[in-house]
Amino acid sequence: MMRAMNKNKSTRSTMQKTKRAPSRKPKLDTRLSDAEQFLLPTYKRQPIVFTHGNGAYVYDSTGKKYLDFLGGIAVNALGHAHPRIVKTIRREAARAIHFCNLYHNAYQGPLARKLTEISGMNRAFFSNSGAEAADGALKLARLCARTPSDAPDKPAPKHRILAMQNSFHGRTFGGVSVTFPEKYRMPFTPLLPGVEFVKFSDVEDLESKFDNTVCAVIFETIQGEGGVHPVSEAFWNRARSLATEHSALLIADEIQCGLGRTGRYFAYQKFPSKPDIVLIAKPLAAGLPLGAILTNEAIAARIGPGLHGTTFGGGPLVCATALEFLSIIEDKKLLENVRDRSAELREGLAKLAAKFDFIREIRGEGLILGIELSVDGNPFAAEALRQGLVINCTHDFTLRLLPPFIITSAQVREFLRLLELVLAKTPRSISAAPAQTAVNPPRFAQSAAR
Ligand SMILES: Cc1ncc(COP(=O)(O)O)c(C=O)c1O
Predict the structure, then answer these.
(1) 366, CA 20 to 30 Å: which among 53, 408, 412, 449?
(2) Rounded distance, CA 177 to CA 266, Å?
C-alpha cells in the first residue's frame, strides 16, 4: 500500500516535473517530415507551415505573423478569409459543390457574361488552372488554322506558334512547349512541334518570324515569372496587325497580370486593340481553382460539342465565388485602390532605389511590381521572411511584389519599412545580374518612378 502510494507520488511528481520543465528539444513538426518523405520533390519549399490568414497577413504554425506581399503568387487578391468570400463558399458548399458540364448550373452562364463584359470578349470556357487555359488556347489556335483540305493525320501547313523568350505559360505539355526557360522545357522533349521563340518586345524579330504558317502568337501582357516585364505598346500593335494580316490568333496570357492587378481589369486595356484570346486564372475564384479562356464569336463558331471539355471546370461553387470576387472589386472600388496604393509603393521604392545602389530597376504596373537587383535576390527574400514579410525572388535577381488589392496605405508604409530593413541587413552576394538584354531593357521604368 505504502509502496503503491509512493509509486503514485513519484509518478505524480514526475508528471509535474514534466509539466513544469518541458523538454528543450524542439518538437519535430510531422507535417514537415511527412512533406519531405511523401511529396514528390517538385518545390524548394521554405520550412514553414502556414496555418491561416486574415486580410493581408498570414500566420505560421508557431504563431508568427507575416505581411503577405506575394498573395499566393497573385492568387489571393482579396487577401485571406475575406468575409464575403467565406460566406459565399459556406452557402454554396451547403447547396452543391459540383454538377457536371452535361447540365447547366446557376453561376457559369452569369460568370461568362460578366467576364465578357469586363474584357470586351464574347465567349468563355472555364478550366481549372492557368496552364489548362493556355493549353486549350493552343488547341483552339490549331483548330482555327485547319482547313478542310488539310490531311487529318498530318500537321496542317499553318501550325506554327510564336511564343516569347523569357515566357512562362504553365506546366502542361502545351504550356511548357511555349515556356522559354530550358529547365522547364527541355527535360520533356519532344514537345509540341512548330513552336518558335521571339525576343520579347522586339518588333523586328517578330516580323522576321511571322508568316502565313503561323497560327498563333502567345505572350504575357506583363511577363511575371520572367521578372515583371510589361510588353511594349509598339510590340502589341505589331503583333495585332501581323496576326490579323496572317489570320493567326493573338493570345494574351493575363493569368498573372489580369483581373484588376494593373488597376484595370486587363493589362491589355491600355492598348487600342484587343487580343483574340485572353487567358485568366489565379485570382478569379479568390483562391479556389478556376481558370478561363475568353474569346470572340469567330473562334466560338469553329467549336462544337466534344472538341474540348473538362470535368471540374466551371462548377457552381467556384463560379459563385468568382462572381462574388468580381462584385467585391466593384463594390469596394478596388481598381482605384490598386492604382492609389501602387503610386505610394512606387514613390517609396524610388526612395529606396536612390538609397541602395544595388537596386537596378523598378518595373511593373499597379500591384505587380519587380525590383531588379544587381545581386542575387534570393537571400533578400529569405531575410524578408525572417523579418515577417512574404515576397518572392523570380529570375534570380528580381524581387516580385504581388500584394492583395485590399492593402491599405498603412500596410504600404509597413512594407516599405520592412523592406528597407531587409535591404540594409542582407549580405550581398558577389554574383552580378547579367547585362541588360532585350528582355531586360534600360531603366526606363525606374526613371519614370523617380
Ligand atoms: C503568366 C502565367 N501563365 C500561366 C501560368 C500557369 O498557371 P497555373 O499554375 O494555374 O497552371 C502562370 C502561373 O504562374 C502564369 O504566371
Answers:
(1) 53
(2) 25
For residue 204, the tally of other CB atoms under 10 A from its CB is 10
Number of folded domains that form the chain = 1
Residue 238 within a domain: yes
C-alpha cell at 170: 504553365
pLDDT for 24 equals 59
C-beta 70 within 6 A of ligand 1: no
Take residue 283 and report the three cell numbers written for it.
Answer: 485570382
Whether a cis peptide bond, with omega within 30° of 0, leads into 190 is: yes
Has residue 160 been placed in a domain?
yes
Q: Would you say the CB of residue 180 lies under 6 angstroms from ligand 1?
A: no
Per residue in 376-419, pLDDT (tens digit) is 999 999 999 999 999 999 999 999 999 999 999 999 999 999 99
Percent of the chain as helix, strand, coil, to the nearest 5:
40, 20, 40
Q: Cβ distance 243 to 89 under 8 Å? A: no
Find the CATH number of the domain harbouring 247.
3.40.640.10
Span from the CA of 288 to the centroid of ligand 1 (angstroms): 14
283 CB under 6 A from ligand 1? no
Ligand 1, atom 4, residue with closest C-alpha:
169
Q: Is residue 59 part of a domain?
A: no
What is the predicted pLDDT for the residue at 448? 28
Hey, what long-range contacts does 41-50 have (CB within 8 A, 24 or more apart)?
A: 46/382, 46/385, 48/385
* Residue 155 vs residue 421, higher pLDDT: 421
pLDDT in tens, 148-173: 999 988 889 999 999 999 999 999 99
Q: Which atom from ligand 1 is nearest to the alpha carbon of 225?
A: 16
pLDDT at 10: 43
> Which residue from 75, 200, 256 has its CB within 8 A of the most atoms of ligand 1, so it is best to mutate?
256
pLDDT at 153 (0 to 100)? 85
115: in domain: yes
Q: Is the minimum distance from the CB of 125 to ligand 1 under 6 angstroms?
A: no
Q: What is the pLDDT of residues 229-265, one digit of tens each?
A: 999 999 999 999 999 999 999 999 999 999 999 999 9
Ligand 1 close to Cβ of residue 135 (< 6 A): no
Alpha carbon distance 29, 40 (integer Å): 19
pLDDT value, residue 243: 98
pTM: predicted TM-score of the whole model, two decimal places: 0.91
Our answer on whether the CB atom of 426 is closer than 6 Å to any ligand 1 atom is: no
